Amino acid sequence: MDSYEDYIDYRVPAVFLAVALAIRLLTRARFWTNPLRTRLWTDPLLRAVVGLLVLAVAVCVFVTPEMIAWVNRVTGVPNLAAPWVYTLLALFSFSCLLLIIAWQRGMEKARRALWRVTAAYAAVTLALWVLFAAADIPVERVRDFDTFYATTPYARELIVLYLLAHAAAGTVTSFLIWGWLVSGKYEVKGWLLSGLLLLGTGYVANLVFDAFKLTAVVARWTGHDLDWLSTAAAPVSGALSAILIGLGFLLPHVGEDLQGRWEARAAYRRLEPLHRLLYEAGALAGFSPGPRASSYLALASRDTSIRDSILKLEPYLDQELWDRAREEALRQGATAEEANGIAGAVTIAAALDTRTTSPSRDAGSSPVGLLGDIHAISKALHHPLTVTVRRHAASTGSTDT
Known about the structure:
Pfam families: DUF6545. The protein is an all-alpha fold.
């Protein structure tokens, strides 16, 4: 049996992809008790990404010489690991192709393509095992199976079939990715663009892997020895390809999720001034979701409690005060959005004061469409114009009266 003590190339991507898979599943805290668990069984794209990462990890694990030797030893069949690894590679290629189709054209077209691609790869997989059963390959090779048996009947066809099937899938997938990027037919931006660029680069490395392997095999056919291309160069290219492809499929999903959580947390913090004002005035409605709540739940809870509190303040809200405050804010150079926020902040502050002095006011004359964006109002509480505008609007109101 050939040595594999210095063979470490695929261990790094195996660990990387396993960590990537864990991140995908644990992006949101308490996976088994939150909506991601439900999404995993209801969202076909999420299932496809998770399944693809599982296959990628399996390929990187079983392609190492230690695992190849283990499979052969456990099954008692010399070189059985070869068709097993080739099958995993075929399934991985199959999954990548379908996922790219689903991303680009939607799940419906991916389902139509599923049957054609499934039939093709099922035939390839069956042929791999039939050729393996027919080949006479008694000597175990854990590192150089491809080149050692490159001229052996049936093993030769087995090796060429898996390499051509792998290269064909990589070529088609690469064509779809780069065509998607340059055609302009589909809008590509943000995290999806970054993911596709990684995937496109990963599939270039994938094709280089196939080229190295095929070159080494053909060299054996012509009586030359370029085995180092298969045993040394190809694993490096394959490991790089696995990392780039795994990251390319992972990045759009995790990136969008993390960005959404970050934006929700930022929006939650932006509402803090208004939330604190209502809380300190004893006018806050609703409940706190707790420190361990997700960003989305915390934001929804704070947004709802603020809006409910404002609804309870409606009897004390003065439409004319809002109009005067907005007009003064605009006069002093505020933008329309800033003026709306300042006017809302002035009106709420005045309503809280009125509520303290006249707690039993009749609720019959509530203003309509007064407050606008609560985020602008919360921001305006710290705006330097707010105090000035409030004083001016209050004094103007007294003069009018």
